[in-house]
Design brief:
CATH topology: Rossmann fold
Number of strands: 7
Oligomer: single chain
Order of helices and strands: HEHEEHEHHEHEHHEHH
CATH architecture: 3-Layer(aba) Sandwich
Helix content: 40-55%
Mean pLDDT: 97
Number of domains: 1
Radius of gyration: 18 Å
Shape: globular
Strand order of the largest sheet: 4-1-5-6-7
Largest sheet: 5 strands, parallel
Length: about 240
Amino acid sequence: MKIMQLIANRNNDFSNHKIPTIAFLGDSVTHGVFELIPDGTEQFIVVYDTEKAYPNLVRGLLAKQYPAANLNIVNAGISGDSAVKGLARLERDVLSKSPDLTVVCFGLNDSQKGLDGIGDYTAAMEEIFCRILAAGSEAIFLTPNMMATEVSEKLPQGILARIAAHTAQIQNGGAMDAYMEAGRELAAKYRIPVCDVYAKWKAMQASGVNITERLANYINHPTRELHRLFADSLLETMMKNI
């Protein structure tokens, strides 16, 4: 991808090349949300750890290979966000930063509407992709992780257990698979590379991995260790010649 040449140019001749900007548009996983801790009521405490989220891990991986590039990373993830909400703030949070590459990751919250919500998801994603490309930025569609497939015994009864039960129904019923396939088809339409982390999670499940135990909140936030899978996969996608 062109982004890698821009990074290499900056690293090798930083006096004559601008700092490359990579923007990440997404939801709570992009934002850097991990555990949800019950507070004894019908509410919970949200644990943020943005240093361990994949946008920052990508920064670290690239800094090791291109130490003089001094990349600009824009984390435009917002907890609870969807493709529709992401489209509404695309100009403010992403395009106004003039990114050279924009990584788009939505689907976890969108899929909670079930199959009836796919139309809204695809319409918003298509507009996001079109506007990113029209602004002169490269794009990557980053598929998210799988969600819980069961209600973990580690979750106390209450709001989190109810959310987990609904999420498992969406995941096991095939709705999340349908959203991801719709996103892949859109990306192919616009010749946008797909970094298919979701497929890697499905492969883990097929090999016997307990997916729910790989989620920091036992619902939909991957553990800190599995954010590295996102970062490694993104770097691999970025380094491919398109």
